[in-house]
Amino acid sequence: MAKFVFEEDGIFKAELNEFLTQEMAEDGYSGGEVRVTPTRTEIIITATRTENALGEEGWRIWELTVVVQKRCSFPEGSVGLYAEKVATESLCLIRSQEALLCKGPTMTAKSMKFVDGLMIHSGDPVNYYVDTSAHHVLLRQSVLGIKVKIMLPWDPTAKTGPKKPLFDHRNTVEPRDENAPVTKARQISLAPGSGAWMLLYKDP
């Protein structure tokens, strides 16, 4: 017999908790306690906003009492609902979940990438071929970050880009013409004994 009593009590508390969770989701419902006395059953509702749970002149708490009384087949006047404020809201799990549910789609972190052309991401050439700049904009609800990467072109003169070529760069040399005339050169000493020489080229 005691087993069935425990089962009925568990089913009653589960149904009551589900009902109050749906009805008082916006009032910060965090749980409830059922106290059974010989004359009546008292249900203490714990919430973060008790003024909303009570309603104007206690009208809402009276409506909830009538619904619970009819749904659980209590005799008239044998059940009472009371609202109690959460002592420490930071320790309330439902309060924390409520704060998380307040985030809309705009509060979720989101990243978007736009790529055009060639961009290298690894290796030593990234250090001198990729120019990176980042800027953050402080909005009222969040922070917007913008990061831009520009790959510089190879420039042998090192004016608009790095002078060092990429590893996959290949320089093609035109073959030498064997029929081209050979330029003759003559070596002349600028100062005897100084080791300085000058080459003079003579066209054929």
Automatic annotation (TrEMBL):
Places the protein is found: Mitochondrion inner membrane
The cross-references to Gene3D superfamilies, in alphabetical order and at most eight, read:
3.30.300.20, Ribosomal protein S3, C-terminal domain
Q: Which UniProt keywords apply?
A: Ribonucleoprotein, Ribosomal protein, RNA-binding
- Domain KH type-2 spans what residues? 15-88
> What biological-process GO terms show up in the record?
positive regulation of apoptotic signaling pathway
Please provide, alphabetically and separated by semicolons, the GO molecular function terms listed in this UniProt record: RNA binding; structural constituent of ribosome
Q: Where is this region: Disordered?
A: 163-182
Biased composition regions of type Basic and acidic residues, renumbered to the chain: 165-179
Q: Does the keyword Ribosomal protein apply?
A: yes
What's the name of the protein?
KH type-2 domain-containing protein
Which organism's genome codes for this protein? Capra hircus (Goat)
